[in-house]
Each structure stands twice: as structure tokens, then as C-alpha cells.
Amino acid sequence: MTVERLPLPVNESDLEALAELLVDAVESGAAVSFVTLTRDQAHDWWRALLSDPDSRAIVLVARDAVGIAGSVQLHPARAPNQPHHADVAKLLVHRRARRRGLGAALMAAVEREAVAAGFHLLVLDSKRGEAGERLYRQLGWNVVGTIPRYALDTDGRSLHDTVVFYKELPARDDR
To answer: Which CATH superfamily is domain 2-174 in?
Structure first.
């Protein structure tokens, strides 16, 4: 598997694969901002994110023999007093590619991209008790705390807790 920065403008094939990836994540219960999601809605969501002229988001994708098998995003903070800070969002690994180290590879790549872009404080959150939480702990992320009943689960009824993490990376000058 290879991990790369998603080339922009995104081609239709990649856009379709990203939509499939997001739908797969939601259908498998991932806490990635959606309760239900159709393929068309996922397509529209990705298109809006990737065509936003004000977005400075960095999107990484992992490809296998079938196509895009995973993705992660890096969103620079918008506040002028936080030029060193970015949020990591939507670490997605397709069910066909899970349990093979792809999540860890995507996280290592997003950390490298962050350092290269001048970010040395990263923040993310994860549904408590899920694979993402375990992965972030294994990768040395620091727990800030848990927010109870943070968001709806994909069942649309029950609320789940979220765990907030941060990680300090070496500044470009510190390497």
C-alpha cells in the first residue's frame, strides 16, 4: 500500500472512491460526523471539501490494488494566533483493508506532512472505546480528557463519549 497526498484537482475516479470510503466508514459505525449517509451525499461532501478555495486542508490517501483504501485529513487552525496548530480529522480505513497497519501508516504520514507544513501541535478526537482511540494511544498521542455524550452514534439514538487527544511534534527547526 502506498500513502500519498491526494492530487488536486481531484479526478472523478478518486472522488467516487472517497465517497465509497466514507459511506463504508459510516455503515460500519465510525463516528465521523454522519449518522446516515448516501453515496450521493458522500460524493457532495468530498466535492465541497476538495473544491473549497479557502480550504488549506491536506488530504492523504492510501491506495491498494482495488483503489483508495484509506484517508486522513489535516486542517490548519484558522485562528491567527495558532499558526503552529492543526486538527487531524476523519482517519478512514475501508473494511477490506483493516487490521493491516494502514491506520498507523496514515497517521505517520499525516504527522510528517504536518511537520513539513510547519505545524507542531496536532489535535484530534475519537469515539471512546473504538479502534481509533486504541491506535492514537499506541502512537503516543496524549489524552486531554473525555467529553461525555458528545455525539450521536450511527444508530441515530444513542450518544457516545469522545476522547480528545493532542500530540506535539518537533518544529522544523528542531529536527
So the answer is: Gcn5-related N-acetyltransferase (GNAT) (3.40.630.30)
